[in-house]
Amino acid sequence: MIKTYEFPEYPYIRSADQDAVAAVRRPVVIGGAGPIGMAMAIDLAMHNVPVVVLDDNNTVSFGSRAVCYAKRLIEIMDRLGVGERMMQKGVTWNVGKVFFEDEQVYSFNMLPEEHHRRPGFINLQQYYIEQYLVDRIQQLDEVDLRWKNKITALSQDDDCVRLTVETPDGPYELEAEYLIACDGANSDIRAMCGLSSSGQIFQDRFLIADVIMDPKCFPLERWFWFNPPFHDGQSTLLHRQPDNVWRIDFDLGWDADPEEEKKPENIIPRVKAFLGEDVEFELEWASVYTFCCRRMDDFRQGRVLFAGDSAHQVSPFGARGANSGVQDTDNLAWKLALVLEGKAPVSLLDSYTEERVYAADENIKNSTRSTDFITPKNEASRHFRDAVLNLAHKYSFARSLVNSGRLSVPSTYVDSSLNTPDAEDFAGRMAPGAPSTDGPVLRNGQDDYLLNCLGNDFKALLFVDPQNPPSESELVQLNALSQNEVPVYGYLVSPQPLDIELPNGVELLVDTLGVVAERFDAQPGTCYLMRPDQHVCGRMRRFDADRVIAMQRKATGY
Amino acid sequence: MAKLILDNNMAAPDDIYELLTELHRGLEPEQSADVNARLILLLANHIGDVEVLAEATRIAREHLPPAPELKREI
Hints:
CATH superfamily of the domain at 16-90 and 122-198 and 295-367 in chain A: FAD/NAD(P)-binding domain
CATH architecture of the domain at 16-90 and 122-198 and 295-367 in chain A: 3-Layer(bba) Sandwich
CATH topology of the domain at 16-90 and 122-198 and 295-367 in chain A: FAD/NAD(P)-binding domain
Number of strands of chain B: 1
Distance between the termini of chain B: 40 Å
Largest sheet of chain B: none
Radius of gyration of chain B: 16 Å
Order of helices and strands of chain B: HHHE
Shape of chain B: globular
Oligomer: heterodimer
């Protein structure tokens, strides 16, 4: 049925592990080669951890599914090496229009903040991102991606996780020091562990219709209708994807029959009623879905870790599924790598649950709020919702209450046990636990962005005054951090080039516009320690190597 | 932090009460519910302070049974 995309078919290749006399033990096995499982694998490989990925299928996701990828996900994909491909293919929009019944209530322009490498989000079909991730994995020797390998049984003890894996050649046994479940909302691994995910089901059904149209028919805008006149459900959403594909999302109500609604003869009249009889389109893909908001109590059970939809599920409003799943892997990869190398206590893995449960709750809260606005659950909510939309016409305050999905933004792990609380006064958003902001810099005389310089390792940012550069002894101390068991690489951040020689473990970033210093509320002497996932560990007004080391120990679970 | 005022803060309480009842004169229940929703939204924006509003919402339904637990196994 899909016309704009040809699905790759990846070969099943027999692994030597299937012929081994005794079960082979691997450091990490990942269950599921969706976007989350593959991001997890690439991230671990970049930390030199060998990974086996098992997937019961042999191609990418069917249908466009996840569509909207937010800035933080693109930044993580930049670090993993597929961000640029996503940007080349993805489309973005800035103008959004909100309609209520037969009138436009208002329109808005999401002018993004200047001086960031990446926009607020892009739209892209899920199969493209999966394909790019598979291509990237093929460049990495550390990742062994096994198609048509299905985990059918598992058990764990203090020693390892023992898996039975079914293949076209029959079953084999495999052992893993750690198993990461990235096998989606109906996770088999979760069920095999006897665990559940609990929360709230929403009694509503939605129809997704992806249609191909001439781009002249519709501008590159997002249109959201509340109580649309052309459709008897409570909402309709239209936005664009690459390949001239538009996603239309119709609310159908709880009583709709999903099998009937999925039939083209029922979809096409709905789409025509919406687009108009004269607009030519082809139906690309359709699906009827329900959703729930739920999460597991703990994302770690011994040697099994859960990431993405297996651990937590949200409603689609606000695009927090794939976006938050990749933030899970961003959080887990460096921690698991340090634990496997024996450079951090196993208890560091508990901070994964701590931080990502916090994020999951934030995402569930936001997407539940959007859902409750879009499909009010009782008469009083409906009155409030309609009143907001009516008032929004004339009164700007009401526009801030219109909630057709809030853009997914990453969580600041405010109370994380890995943070070192501020000992001095700081303003702005770069508090301990915050994901790093971005800004343009010159690195080796080349235009670059701060986020390209952060990640994978711990990094220290020392803001300096070029008229009064750091002393020889400060440079020696900063450089010595790069020789730590878990290295900290130093950057001097200066508004102008410096005329001093730098040791090997220290680099210069020229903050040409002063944007970085401003966003970090930095003065000369201010120093930040950044985690391998680009979150802030802690900060100080005067560089002190002992404090940096103490912050890093805290951030590695000691 | 502002606190919800629970002693009289109205110079002309009868005028204010009359405003509220007059607002609904001649309206059907559905229209009244709509007007009340608009009024609450206007006042909520004017107050702006979430703590004050949270206290008001708590008191508004303190005489009724608490909301049922939402979370359940699925």
